[in-house]
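Thread title: Can someone regenerate the structure for this chain?

I was given the following input by a collaborator and told the matching structure tokens would be attached. They weren't. Posting the sequence so someone can regenerate them.
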Amino acid sequence: MSATLFNRYIWLVDTISRAGRITLDDINRRWLHSAYNTTGDIIPERTFHRHKEAIKSMFDIDINCDRHDGNCYYIANGGDIESNAMRRWLLGTFSVESLTREAKHLKGRILFEDIPSGQHFLTQIIEAMRDSVTLIITYHTFSDVQSTFELEPYCVKVYARRWYLLARSVTDFRLRIYALDRMEELQTTEHKFTISPEFEAREFFWNSYGVIADGDIDAQRVRIRVDSFQSNYLRTLPLHRSQQETERTEEYSIFEYYLRPTFDFRQTLLGYGAKLEVLAPQSLREQMRDIAHSMSELYEDK
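Best answer:
Regenerated them for you:
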């Protein structure tokens, strides 16, 4: 499937979702003026129904037709879109990008955050997930090791301007994270696999901060003290779904989390500098202290 076809699927869902109820004729009227329509053609009825089936298969979004209301199409499970973070993000991002394309005079006034790794392999990986077939990837780590292996794609996740793939190795059956921008080559196979019915992607990352789900680091209670000004940022954009503000004064607030204090979480805390202090657990407090000490040595006059 090409990126053009993928965009057409999302355009259809976005158009029907925003309209609420819409006929195929009205869909085609909008399609004729869409920036994604590069041929100037309408969407034939048979093609439209094929798109409906593909959208159901790929995104689990049902597009139904109300024969008693002028053959209007609508999203039957619209509530599922609102409750599904991936669908909500995908449609929200596409909707803004689509508007920007069509309102070209606003192009320089709406700025997007570029995700370099999202431009390559993502569509092919999503197709493999949909079809439950394995992938053979050639992967290049930052330690300059390159290897080729076969894996079962479980889910994709975006974090800190990078796309990541959670996949299970077909040799040792372990789940690992792979960054898309470190993939050199990717090949889809015809080897089928079955995900365990007990696996749930959201549950897998539940106690993780970003993409590191290190089983060797247990989830634990983390307490931090943040000055009153920086606390405003944490209230409006929590660091983690478990965030709770347990104390608030004029000078500071104390926030609690239940998560794995992995490398990516520590890096985020360091970004707050002297405005944030780790109170617990003691092991994390000592790690932050050692990092701060090493950083201060870098800036000592020699």
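The chain has a mean pLDDT of 86.
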